[in-house]
Write a structure and sequence with these properties.
With 376 residues, this protein is of the alpha/beta class. The protein folds into 2 domains: 189 residues, 3-Layer(aba) Sandwich (Aldehyde Dehydrogenase, Chain A, domain 1), CATH 3.40.605.10; 145 residues, 3-Layer(aba) Sandwich (Aldehyde Dehydrogenase, Chain A, domain 2). α2 packs antiparallel against α5, α3 packs antiparallel against α7 and α5 packs parallel to α6.
Length: 376
């Protein structure tokens, strides 16, 4: 029995107790988690500081260091998220649909827990709590494998959560952390058939691709965030600059940060200098098309196919001047990962066309892609 199989055996031994627990019992455990996170903030930040010191030594980018960092405000946000989960309906046992056959047979479709969920993710310690809390609410035991960059943060968070769920009457093994960060252990997770019921990769494109290609366990494939803002010819340009600036610079290391800005040719000469002034305040590198470079000068790096297809997760943005709504939508259809896209416009027709033709999980009109802040 290998390392992952041992963790999975522990999880399977207690998963039925969690699967059959009442909503009140699960909510009590979530409240205990929120309580212990608040009570132990200094201890959490102490361990997180070790990870941050290591990140500096490894020359991790400022944006990725921000992704890794925990402070009182962020820990409070994580605790609040656990509390908010208690106000949601319990998904376990919900009847999704049903019918009665001509012979009188009743058929119902009921939500049930999956069992043991494995989650592989990168250097975002908030995901450690988010993932565990969601699994707990939905009646699933979880095995967490975070990035080595956040190891000390993840370890203390899991230790605290295990104490909390035990206080609430559950086995601590409903939440477990993979403490061996060797890549081979990740492969063991991906191939733990019969031990892990489903695997969820959460992170960048390379991580998701590696899991999907290597896993023999069923995988729920999540998406990356190559998100766009299109500035239409009728846009309020100050609003557009606010939206792009917020979407790019508020927290560039997350999946709904803006990575590319498309600008209608008719407003490009007025808008691009305005946008550059805002982005310069955060030292954002601009990679642009020929017309963008003609307007803004040689400070703009020439953009290529790679730049338009990349989720930078950093203070970098690609910009392209387009002839209109149709070209903007074509560009988004080609390069988008289907996460979040925005149009800035005063035209009802353009707004409705954009919403109808852009096939992404979230499509916004005149607001930042950062509007959806839950867990990201």
């Amino acid at each position: 029995m290998n390392y992952i199989e041992k963790l999975a055996t522990n999880a399977r031994a207690c998963k039925d107790d969690l699967a059959n627990a009442s909503s009140a019992q699960k909510n009590d455990a979530l409240l205990e988690i929120a309580h212990i996170l608040r009570r132990c903030m200094p201890k959490i930040m102490e361990q997180n500081s070790i990870d941050l010191e290591n990140a500096v030594r490894r020359n991790m980018s400022k944006a990725m260091q921000d992704r890794l960092a925990l402070n009182e405000k962020r820990i409070e946000g994580i605790a609040n998220a656990c509390e908010k989960l208690t106000s949601l309906d319990d998904p376990v046992g919900q009847i999704e649909s049903g019918s009665v056959r001509p012979n009188g047979m009743r058929i119902t479709k009921v939500r049930v827990p999956m069992g043991v969920i494995g989650i592989i993710y990168e250097a975002r310690p908030n995901v450690t709590v988010d993932a565990a809390a969601l699994c707990l609410k939905s009646g699933n035991a979880v095995i967490l494998r975070g990035g080595k960059e956040a190891f000390n943060s993840n370890k203390i968070l899991v230790e605290l959560m295990r104490q909390a769920v035990e206080t609430a009457g559950f086995s601590p093994d409903i939440i477990q952390l993979v403490e061996d960060t060797d890549r081979q252990i990740a492969i063991e997770m991906m191939q733990a058939n019969g031990h892990i019921d489903v695997l969820i990769p959460r992170g960048g494109a390379q991580l998701i691709k590696a899991v999907v290609q290597s896993a023999t366990v069923p995988v729920i494939e999540t998406g990356t965030g190559n998100c766009h803002v299109y500035v239409d010819s009728t846009a309020d340009l100050k609003m557009a600059a606010d939206i792009v600036d917020n979407g790019k610079t508020q927290r560039p290391s997350v999946c709904n940060a803006v990575e590319s800005c498309l600008v209608h040719r008719d407003v490009a000469e007025d808008f691009l200098p305005m946008l550059k002034k805002r982005l310069d305040e955060h030292n954002v590198e601009i990679r642009g098309c020929n017309l963008t470079r003609m307007i803004l000068g040689d400070c703009v790096t020439p953009a290529d196919e790679y730049d338009y297809a990349t989720e930078f997760l950093d203070y970098i943005i690609s910009i392209k001047v387009v002839d209109g709504l149709g070209e903007a939508i074509e560009h988004i259809q080609k390069y988008s990962t289907g996460h979040s896209e925005c149009i800035v416009t005063e035209s009802l027709f353009a707004a409705e066309e954009f919403q109808k033709r852009v096939d992404s999980a979230a499509v916004y009109v005149n607001c930042s892609t950062r509007l959806c802040l839950i867990n990201i």
